[in-house]
Prior knowledge:
By secondary structure, this protein is of the alpha+beta class. The chain has a single domain, classed as Beta Barrel (M1 Pyruvate Kinase, Domain 3). The protein has a 7-stranded mixed beta barrel with strand order 1-6-5-9-8-7-11. A hairpin with a 3-residue loop joins strand 3 and strand 4. The longest helix is centred in the first third of the chain and has 16 residues. It is globular, with a radius of gyration of 18 Å. One of its GO terms (molecular function) is molybdenum ion binding. It holds the Pfam family MOSC. InterPro entries: MoCF_Sase_C (IPR005302), MOSC_domain (IPR052716), Pyrv_Knase-like_insert_dom_sf (IPR011037). This is MOSC domain-containing protein.
Amino acid sequence: MFAEWLMARLERLFRRFRRAPAGRVTAIFVADAAGTPMRACEQTLALVDQGLAEDRYALGRGFWRLTDGCQVTLILAEDLRRAERRHGLPLDAGQHRRNLVVSGLVGVELRGRSLRIGEALLAWHRVRPPCGYLDRVAGAGMAKALGRHGGYCLRVREGGVIRVGDDVTVV
């Protein structure tokens, strides 16, 4: 009886201190303005309440409607691979038009959570569904390929450097 109680108590205690779900940054993309090609970079600087340095969103040139702006966009690498398999479209060179590609967070609920990515802290803002404009810029079928897995908009709460290979921790 005591052993069962002790085990249950220890399990609850360990659950509180388990590491949060972690992923990894697999790619970073920025663009100078809406519609310009995405370019890969090894690192970037997240700017509080602005976005990524040198990216269209931080520069105020990244959206077609005022209600459309995001500071930073993120998409899961696993969702990109699924879209590539299903639709045969290349998605590894930024054609998806998202800033950060992250692996290892499949099945993790991000809504309402914050992510520690490298030195920066980013907060979930909203789902980022693909729009018809994506087909015009990246090629016909891109929006359909991403479907309901078009990524997320994030807000920068604490600035800092983000590098390819950095851990991503849900906090």
